[in-house]
Write a structure and sequence with these properties.
single chain, 684 residues, alpha/beta, 5-stranded parallel β-sheet, two-stranded antiparallel sheet, 7 strands, 59% helix, AA/rel_permease1, membrane, APC family permease, transmembrane transporter activity, transmembrane
């Protein structure tokens, strides 16, 4: 005898062995082309990065900073006239010293806190909730500005090589952000392949340019920049104004430090041994950045680059034309403006500046996931996408960066004023947190000889780092506050306040949902209600589902907005002979929700605390425009009914023919199976 009577649903056995791999659901064709095939969770180890691929992923921001940090330094000094350029070597030396201290400090942080929380975890663990949230907010703001500044700087270099594109500045910037988002959504491993070559070409070409320029200078043939001939009107400045300009130049030069913190946030993405590989990558990044920054600054001075905030301040310069970037002028002076190497440097610089945004696309989602895990951000930020990346964080970052580029018109000089505040807030609080960490370790005692030496070294390094970064933060705040940095001081507290609010919301919800001594279960009945609009196959399918669930009582309900339609349906229902009673509810004001809710409440009052399950038939369509042709009443009713106590809602799908193209495949009926059975309706 067939154990499955005619019309009964056949359900596959739920018993699945642990070794069975379930095939991934195929994404839509467009998504598959753009992002690639889904990656299984157990393949995550294959996505971890070796050092040579981690360097371009996490260090592109810091390495690319050398393309605009010297430019910003020179530009600020020239505001006070050419004489102030004499301070450039001393300022650059201070930036280099600071960079060395910060790199050494973050090596200690990586060793002590390798989980990927970086400065946020350090501050929250050692300084408390408020400092931790402030650091997180500062880092999130900094990551958004990293994308905006990097892309704007890259577009600047493209325009330097192709001036005709100047009117397309904003459009180019937005297009590049979209491309970077798509590449990162494909996964860390594929992004490392895409970004490795441009980063290494940039490092190699700029290093070759520095060495060539310095060798030419040593041989008595120093390169001469095209702007060396332009004079600048020297204003009369008081001593206080000169000091302020020097401090502003130093704070702009400190933009070379941005991105150093990204490695500490990305430790989980490294191959084992994670800590050692992350520390090695950080050291390589710092060494390369120091060499390129110092070399490019030296060549800018040797070749006589004059770069003004307002090009019209350069006497004799056609200020209607775009001003070539500092690195473009140095490359032209070293290799020749029409040479192949000049275009190689420009192309590599533009690429690495654009790809520097990739550092943020690794740091922001990882930090967002940590914040979501701790309850300070929406839980969706801790969800990995098809390619095992935190795709929601990447999309949020891309959208925020595009908004900033639109508001600033992708002007680098505007964006860079906002840029460095957030990173030094996190630097300072992170280093202070590390000082407290090492002091606590020393107070606790029980350390071996090597551990004691390591803790003392860490305390010394992080102590110096905390002192220097605090001073720089004060300088940066004073010199940049009136130039737009005040916006960052508004954004960081606002974001921190929102994160604390999210944390309290999750805490309250958790408390509300926790099982306690007053929690009781049990009901006095189980009633099913099938909503009937017209006599159609979807209604029969919903009835079949309700009957198969074996409720204590099953009823059909029709909300009558038209009496003739209601009478016609009643006659059809009697002819069906299903044995299920049909209740007709009058609706003089043509609403569906209120009559149904009153009916359910009256039913529960009569029968006690019954569980009521409402079955709502719903069309499933395959084309977006079909949704405009259906009233979607089931969804709206479901939203209303979910607010009624004791009610569960079951949406019963009916697949229209067009829905079979949703995933690019057509479901064919089994032998002997008709369209009605495929949709789940069974004649009775």
């Amino acid at each position: 005898m067939d154990p499955h009577p005619a019309g009964a649903a056949r359900v596959a056995s739920p018993h699945v062995t642990h070794n069975t791999r379930v095939a991934a659901e195929q994404p839509p064709a467009v998504k598959r082309i753009l992002l690639g095939e889904p990656i299984a969770s157990d393949e995550g180890a294959e996505q971890l990065l070796p050092k040579h691929r981690a360097l371009p992923i996490f260090a592109s921001d810091a390495l690319s900073s050398v393309a605009y940090a010297p430019q910003e330094l020179v530009m600020i000094l020239m505001t006070g006239g050419l004489a102030l350029l004499a301070f450039t070597p001393a300022i650059a030396a201070m930036v280099v010293v600071l960079l060395i201290v910060v790199v050494l400090s973050y090596r200690q942080l990586i060793r002590a806190y390798p989980s990927g929380g970086g400065d946020y975890e350090v501050a929250r663990t050692n300084l408390g909730e408020i400092p931790g949230v402030v650091v997180a907010a500062a880092l999130l703001v900094d990551y958004v500005l990293t994308v905006a500044v990097s892309v704007a700087s890259g577009v600047d270099n493209i325009i330097s090589a192709v001036p005709e594109l100047v009117s397309w500045r904003v459009e180019l910037a937005i297009a590049f952000v979209v491309i970077i988002v798509l590449v990162n959504l494909r996964g860390v491993r594929e992004a490392s392949f895409a970004f490795a070559v441009p980063t290494y070409v940039f490092v190699g070409s700029v290093a070759l340019m520095v060495v060539t320029g310095l060798v030419r200078t040593a041989l008595g043939d120093a390169p001469v920049a095209s702007s060396a001939q332009y004079a600048v009107e020297t204003p009369e400045l008081a001593q206080a104004a000169v000091i302020l300009l020097i401090l502003r130049a130093f704070s702009s030069g400190c933009s070379a430090l941005t991105g150093v913190e990204a490695v500490s946030n990305g430790v989980p993405a490294f191959r084992r041994p994670k800590v050692r590989n992350a520390q090695t990558t950080l050291t390589l990044m710092g060494s390369i950045a120091i060499f390129l920054f110092a070399g490019l600054t030296a060549l800018a001075l040797v070749s006589g680059v004059h770069y003004a905030e307002n090009p019209c301040d350069l006497a004799g310069f056609d200020c209607t034309a775009p001003q070539p970037s500092l690195i473009a002028q140095v490359a032209a002076a070293t290799f020749g403006s029409g040479s192949v190497l000049f275009y190689v440097v420009q192309a590599a610089t533009a690429c690495v500046l654009l790809l520097a945004a990739n550092t943020a696309f690794n740091g922001f989602p990882l930090l967002g996931a940590v914040l979501a895990k701790d309850g300070y951000a929406p839980k969706s930020l801790n969800t990995r996408g098809d390619r095992l990346v935190f795709s929601n964080g990447m999309l949020i970052l891309g959208g925020a960066a595009i908004l900033v580029l639109l508001l600033s018109r992708a002007q680098l000089s505007t964006l860079v004023q906002l840029y460095i505040i957030g990173v030094f807030v996190s630097f300072t609080l992170g280093q202070i947190g590390m000082v407290r960490h090492w002091r606590r370790r020393l107070r606790e005692g029980g350390l071996g000889r090597d551990e004691l030496r390591s803790a003392r070294w860490g305390l010394a390094v992080n102590g110096v780092g905390a002192g220097l970064t605090t001073v720089v933060l004060i300088v940066v705040t004073i010199t940049k506050f009136t130039h737009g940095a005040y916006l960052v001081f508004i954004a960081i507290p606002l974001l921190a306040f929102l994160m604390i609010g999210v944390r309290r919301y999750y805490r309250d919800v958790e408390h509300e949902l926790a099982v306690d001594g007053t929690t009781r279960f049990g009901s006095s009945g189980d009633v099913a209600i099938v909503l009937v609009s017209r006599m159609q196959k979807p209604v029969l399918k919903a009835i079949d589902y309700a009957v198969a669930a074996h409720h204590t009582e099953t009823r059909a309900v029709h909300v009558a907005v038209d009496r003739d339609d209601a009478d016609r349906l009643a006659a059809q229902w009697r002819a069906l002979g299903s044995g299920i009673p049909l209740d007709v509810l009058d609706s003089p004001y043509r609403t569906y929700g209120e009559p149904l809710i009153r009916y359910i409440e009256a039913l529960r009052d009569e029968r006690g605390p019954s569980v009521v399950t409402v079955y709502l038939p719903q069309y499933i369509v395959g084309h977006w425009w079909e949704t405009l042709l259906h009233n979607r009443r089931a969804r709206r009713l479901a939203s209303r009914l979910m607010l009624v106590h004791g009610v569960a809602v079951t949406l019963v799908p009916w697949l229209l023919d067009s829905s079979e193209v949703i995933y690019g495949r057509r479901s064919r009926p089994l032998p002997g199976q008709d369209r009605t059975e495929r949709s789940g309706a069974v004649a009775r």
